[in-house]
Amino acid sequence: MANKLTREQIQKTYSNPDTQERILRIDCLSVLLGSCIISDSYEVPPRLATAIKLSSEGSGLVSRVQSNANPRNECTLSAFLQVAWNELLIDPEGTNVEAIERVISDELRKERILFPYIYGRELYEKAFVELRDNNDTLTHKDTMTLLANAPQGVFQMHDYVTGPWGLARSREFRYCPPSTWVPLYHCDDLSCDRLHNVLLETGSSKISKVRTKMREVLSRQDSAESEWDEFLRDRMAAHVNPFSWRHPAGIPSLIGDAFSVSEMRLILNDLLNSTQGKLRSAITALGQEVKEADKFAESLNEAQMLQLILLCRDEEVIDSLDSLILSGGIVIPPAEVRKSPRNVRGTGYFDLVPECASRGVRFYGGASLSLLRSRHLISNLFDLVNPSQRERLQWLIRGTDGSSFQEQLDQFVCGGPLDGALGSLIFDSGSNLQAAEKFVGIGPRARKNLANEESLRRAITWRLGIDGPSESDALVDFRQYGARLRELAMRTHTYASSDQADIRAVASNFFVKLEGLLQEYLKLATWTLLRDHYATSGFVYSPEEAIGFTIQELSRDQSDVNFVADGKWTLYPMVRGFDILADRLQVLKSDDETQRSAEDYPKILQYPSPYTFLFRHIYPYLDLDPAARTRIAQMLAAASRKLKSGKVDEVRNVLQHTNPKFPTQDEVLGAINAAETVLAEAEEAGFLPVVSRLRESQTDSYGRRILTLGTSNGKTLRLVRPSSYYLTGLPATRQAQYVLRSAIYENSSEVIRLSIREDSEYTKRWSDYPRRRGSGSKSISSHLDS
């Protein structure tokens, strides 16, 4: 038996860097060809076989396999698809790599070889409509039906990018290999958030049969498979740093899944105009001419655009995304964080997943990496071997507890808010700021959109994985206008015309903010307590959808109140709305009509398990602790009563119009007090849309975790994990969310929590997702709680 070649022996044998690069390219082309879908009648193009030169070991193998049933061309290509066993089967110097590239490109464009386009919803929707069953494998016939008229799949190996344009060369190296396992369906178990993969079957062509035969011969021969995978992994790592904080393999899923087709056009148009002609030149090499970028982009489908975008460097793509987002060209709501909803795996050593928000693009690997990344940044800002830089850092962290410099530095980084500590180091000098911008990947065009120090600091720390505090701007404005209005009202008991003008001016803003917050209070309470989150759209709050839902729920059998469809509600219907909602809740009973069907319970709970199911009713209100139900109904009824007794609507109407009867000081102050009291109670209960984020996580030696979710103004909730409750559907604790602290589930310490979905191109792209065959119209976007 031949000795198995080690990685070191392979490197010594093929020590020439150019030869090593050719071997890597051959392997990448082999992976691409070996993973495609072909028809039963596919035949190997003669010019493809001609371009391949076999090594002596490869020639010997082919001679053992070749026969009338196993033609020469198929045998040659089979050896190429194997690349190596103990020795190389291919002669890297004699093989015409460029000719192979051309053949593959032609085969892709002519769709003689196929890849599934896994991004977006095209195959997912085709599978939902055209495939009868949720099987984990497809027959070849069903595979070809699924791929018929679908876009050519976009994947990347090395600098080779597949797609509708054929095989193109990128200026960025990425490792995004194709696979015949395709994410295709969600099952009918409402508690299952898994996007199930389906194995596509390639055709039983001559090449498929010869490959099987060759593998049988190789497995029987007296040699072992050598460490070629390790050798090739080293070669790929020379191009793609596995320890990069911005690992490039995630870019395709970010572009392909997190942006709409119209937004992809904006990105491509921007790159065509900002890459100094490099992207245009690459497109010219594909046989296309770009005269006007916007018109060219307008004619393309999403697969065509994605392939062209991937021809650019990552730093160009990220800077384009950042500049479009920060300038408002691509609109991302404040609470929205976009990433692929397909639960893609993280890439690189740190399992990073790219995501974007209103602050731009970042590569996130979990909160636990924030400290490691921050320490790495500090080492980039200060060379501790350099005495002057070490001294400077010592000065900056002076006053921090610690018996040594390293203890002080550890305490400085770990002892308080991480964003504040880093901010003082980053903005210590212009050179530090530039180093930090480069470290987190803020490009030159994005930098121009970060004009002030605070926005720049938040952009840097957010990219480090630090989610800074976020406050409700409307709530802040309401408090400020309330304080100012109270100050004006208390100046004197008798208001002169100038006093009245001042009060009217501030009161106008105060009541506008009040109306907006009361509307959000009423919408959030109605949506939270009456919508079946488990079996509909998930535990998600959509401010836009909540308008119609609230109108539907509160307008039943009501003749004295009108909620207009455009959502511009005045105080009177909203004040009445709290009463109506309280009455609706109090008449709800737990009976056969309100209890959830056993068929919709998680399948895992059909067997004895340690879990308890919380969502037993179609109305969440009925799943709450009885005391919590009572408190919430009383709070809603009291809100209406306090707003009425405070004459809020009356004072607002008098101040809004020129009226000879101006409110008294007591009336103005009474309205302010009533409004502030109602909103303070709503905020304390969690019924105002104030974002909570994970603030702290503590774990002991038994694996018990205490997680603290909190708002920027100090409202917190503590959760214990692992939980004995089956929390499917509730947002993961790492997500930004609304925490309804008063809505406590019965016999538990859990409360209703809702992630946030605001109208955007992203939410439109992924509306009514997942779709579950076999569960009627039911759809749920569920995420197991972490």
Overall shape: globular
The gyration radius over C-alpha positions equals: 31 Å
- Helix proportion range: 40-55%
The spatial strand order of the largest sheet comes to 7-14-13
Spans of at least 5 consecutive residues with low confidence? 775-786
The largest pleated sheet is described as: 3 strands, mixed
Number of helices: 31
Portion in beta strands: 5-15%
**Can you count the beta strands?**
14
Report the mean per-residue pLDDT as an integer. 91
- Ends distance: 50 Å
Structural class: mainly alpha
Give a quick precis of the structure.
By secondary structure, the protein is mainly alpha-helical. The chain is 47% helix and 10% strand.
Describe the overall structure.
By secondary structure, the protein is mostly helical. The chain contains 31 helices and 14 strands. The strands form 6 sheets. It has a 3-stranded mixed beta sheet. Strands 9-10-11 form a 3-stranded antiparallel beta sheet, with no helix packed on it. A two-stranded antiparallel sheet has the order 1-2. Strand 13 and strand 14 form a beta hairpin. Helix 4 crosses helix 5 (72-82) and helix 25 crosses helix 26 (543-554). The relative contact order is 0.08. The model is unreliable at 775-786 (pLDDT under 50).
Descriptive tags:
786 residues, three-stranded mixed β-sheet, 31 helices, 10% strand, globular
